[in-house]
Structures are given as structure tokens and as C-alpha cells.
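[scheduler] slot 2 assigned
[scheduler] job type: sequence-to-structure, two independent chains
[scheduler] chain ordering preserved from manifest
[runner] begin chain α
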Amino acid sequence: MNKLFLRNQLCIPVKGYNRAIIYDIIRKDYFFIPNAHYAVLDTNDVINFNKITDREEKEELVDFLLKEEIIFEITDREEKNRFKSFNRNLEQPNLLTNAIVHSDTDPVFFDFIKDEYLLNVSVIAPRIDDHLFALLAKIDTLEIDSVYLYIENFDQESYETTRQLICNHRLIFSVNFFNSTSQTETTQLHQNVYFNFFEEEFATYKTKLTTDKLSLNNEHFLEAYNVHSYYYGKVYIDREGNIKNGLNNTYSFGNVKLLTKDLFLNTIHSDKFRELGNINKNNTLVCSDCEFRYMCVDSRVPVKGDKKWYHQAECAYNPYLSKWDYEENYINLKDSGVAISATGCVIDQQKLSNHFNMAWSV
């Protein structure tokens, strides 16, 4: 093959244990490819497709990549210099970017952050009521890009009325209803606000990674590539006012009711508070082998091991079998031959191979 090709720099190959993914971060799409093809495409230089010895395989791959605009042809090697490599560094001036609160959170918290610029605020409420609307009125005065509502109990009878009232608040991006068994649609768009409906309880939803929590865009990729996409820049104020890293954390860094603004800001800017946010998925057991690691939003609490971080709670995706827990032939890590502990990851290759072959046998 004499033609010269470059990879679209916004189409990024990411290697997993069994397979790789091309992240199309602008069009918010992705494509599975074999790890062997990842080795070919993982370059900012002219792509050497001659690494693939099978002619038919090579031609099929090039045709597919051209069709999806993942690669493009250049006339000569000098032309490569016209195209810059994608800068994967994370540039966020603010240490606090995301906040999770409850609808009855002490108003003092919003006085603490009134001079901060936040990307988003998530609000948890048992129902849509006066407490929530009072809070939204307060939030409307802050420097925030968007607001996400998580309503623990869906009320069909009041839905039409409350939907319009919610849309009056300009910052709201999405409203997520739980315990919603009467709604046939899973998503509705009304006045540029997404209304999402879940049959499960919020308590279940907040602890589990699901495919609807996969996020693929430029901002999320850069964050996940450099730091922890859930914990970085996040603060959670629980129902009692305790300051935590995230929804599933038990450790408290203090209480907003007992702190001054300066003490609060010093707390969330401290190295101890920011430790989880600075964890990279490549330094986390299992996650480092997962092809979805730069698009997932993982709220599990990491634990520091001897050499790497790890999770005591298992993810809903097993990257060693390439199966989600709702898919046929899924089994957990231990049963598939993968043991995770503070000392590291030990894989029984024969056992894993047998289960993988059974999981994917036709």
C-alpha cells in the first residue's frame, strides 16, 4: 500500500485487555477494533498499514477507517507537518468544578461558593417541592454552567405541572426521576431540558456503573485521561452537612454548619481532600485494563494498595471477558479467574481463557 494516511487526532485509540476502542470525541461515538489494529493506529505519524500482512484484512480496515473519517489521505510526508497533534493536557483553572447537594442543604454552603465558577451542580431531592424550588432560586444567582436534578420519587399526577415550573430555571440541563414505573418513555426533551425516567431506586443507581453513565466528549476524555473523572474537583454535602468527596464516601472532612468560608475553601483545596481526584485510571487495578476507562463515570471509592489503587466493590463490566453484568455469559472477576487485592492483580490465564471462550462461543 503506497498511499499515505494520518489518523484524525480527535479519533483516539484506547487499548483494553481483549480489544481496543477508537474514541471519536467530537462526534461522541466509538468503534471497537482488535488490539492488533490499535498497535497500528496508535501513532501521530504516517500510519504503517503494512504491519498487517493479510491484504484483505488491511484493505477492509482502511476502507472502514476512511468511511468513518477516522483517517485521511495526504499527498506526501511533508504534508504531515500541517496537522498538529492533539494536546491531551488538562487545563482547568478552578480546583472546585462540581458540587452535589440535597434540596434541604444548609444555605451557608452557597454563600461559601458564590465566588466560585462551577461546571455543574447536582441536586438530590426526595420529590419536587417548595424546598427544591427555593434551592433552585438560590442556584440561579451563582456562576454555574448547568444543573442536574435527581428526584428520588416520581409523581405522575403532578408531573405536567412541575415540569413547566422546572423549565423556568434556565440552568437546568436534565431531570432524572427514580421509582418511575408508570412512564413508558425513558427520555423526554422539553424546552431544552432532558427528563429521564428510571424504574430503579436512586440508592441503587448511585452506586453502580451502567452504560448510560458512559460519557464521550472532548472535556470528559481530557479529564479522565489525566485525573479521576468522578472525584476530580467534586464536593458532596450530605444531608447532615458533612463535607465528602462523593456520594458513596463515608469519610467526612468537616461540617459546613461549623466552618467559616475560608476554612471550607482550605478544606476542599487540601491535598488530602483532593487525593482521590488526582488518581489516574491507569494506576488503578482492573480499570487500567478496561477499554472504557476514559469514558466511564465511576463513583466507587478507590482504596490504596501496595503499588496501585483498587476497588473493593466490583464494577458492572468485566474487561477480562468483555461483558457487562446484564449480558449473557457474564461472570464476575473472581469466578472468571481474576483475583484483586491490595497486593495486586493475579490472573489464572487458563481459567480466564476457558471462560472467555465459553462466553463468546457461537
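[runner] end chain α
[runner] begin chain β
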Amino acid sequence: MQYPQPQNLPQLPLFQEALWASGTAPLLPELMEEEPIAEESAFSEIALRGLPGQCLMLLAPMLRELSEESDSRWLTLIAPPSSLTPDWLRKAGLNRQGILLLPARDQAAAQALACEALRLGNSHTVVSWLNLSAKARAQLSRAAVAGQAQSLNIRLG
């Protein structure tokens, strides 16, 4: 059996009318959010737990995609784990021509280096491996906005 469909009404208004008729407030305004502010969209963080080799296997496709970005700026890796070597980058299929690999002596130096790399704008994405406080996240976000770049922090468990 085929049910008749109204020709003029799109599905969403029909759904909203049914909710209003039942006395329930419409869901659409609650689900719709404003555009995220620039600082919020400039910083992302991923937490990975497991064996180092497994974590690198999960990161490989993401880093490969970032390394093939059409943006002519660098993909900068700040203070990566020791297992992330130039040889691993090659084996994972990353475009090493556009990758800048920067070690750091400690967490504070790595955070300062990440902020500076973001602020300068020579990198489209700066990937860091840091344990960050809320204040440090905000600093990276502001630096990313200033340099029109993206900050990605990876926390390994």
C-alpha cells in the first residue's frame, strides 16, 4: 500500500508540525549550534591508548592525509615519540618533502616551539605530543589563529 505524500511540504516542516501539535517544543533550534569561534576550530586533540606500534598505526592515515595537503606550508611535527622516525614516515607513505620534524628537550620547550611554529604561519598544521593544561590549550589555539594554521595535539596513554 502506498501512502499519499503532500506535494508542497518538505519533510522537516511536517516533522515540526507534528511536534508542535503534540505540545512538544521543536528539536531543531536546540540541535542547531552557532558557528564555532575561530579559536575553538583551530585546536584539536586526540587521546590514544595502547601499544606504541598500535598508536602509530592509527596515526599513519591521518598524518599521511595531512602530509598530502594542497597547502604549500609545512606539516610540522613537534616532539614526536621516539618511534616516529624518518624511516617510519617513509614506510607509512607520508610525503616527507613537506614535513618538518622538530624534537624538543622537554615539555615546556615543546609547547613554546609549537606556539611559535603556529604563530609564524609557516605550517598548515602543527602536530604536538604534549600533556596540556587548559591554559596551554588556549595558548595553542590563539597561536593557531594568529598564524592561520591548525593545531593538533596527540596524547598517548
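[runner] end chain β
[qc] chain β: The two ends are 56 Å apart (CA to CA).
[scheduler] slot 2 released
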